[in-house]
Amino acid sequence: MYYTTYLSPMGEIALVANDDGLTALAFQAGKAAIKKQAQWQEEPEKFQEVVKQLKEYFIGTRVEFDVPLAPTGTPFQKSVWQALCNIKQGETYTYSDIATAINNPKAVRAVGTANGANPIALIVPCHRVIGSNGKLTGYAGGLGLKSKLLMHEGAHFSV
């Protein structure tokens, strides 16, 4: 496993990858912060493309990411995370929308749990999921960060 950090305009981001792709991305100020494991190799050069795309996102020239992803999760979680990747920048979905998108409309709570377990924040855009009332709901990086990300993307939501 490889590890590095990137200081973004919205705070420090930890990046973890294996030879297949990115396995984790977490804002370090949130409750999903990643602590470097002793067996991980700190190799910033392995993350050059990810960091380049993150920089482009933060300056507003990138709306989609194109890096290999290798998240670990159950088949259900992976189906939710794939559905999240279909939410375009500037759009928001509800948990119900995601449940419908994965052809399991009764799985709204399970979708919420899978959304919260997303290991690759920002690139797998779990921050684009809001409550059915249009208001912000939980985010591992905190609601303040979620709000900033959605405003950066031009999304509409209620506070």
UniProtKB/TrEMBL annotation:
The active site is at 126 (nucleophile). GO terms for molecular function: methyltransferase activity. This enzyme catalyzes only one turnover and therefore is not strictly catalytic. According to one definition, an enzyme is a biocatalyst that acts repeatedly and over many reaction cycles. Its EC number is 2.1.1.63. Belongs to the MGMT family. It comes from the Bacteria. This is Methylated-DNA--protein-cysteine methyltransferase. The keyword RNA-binding does not apply.
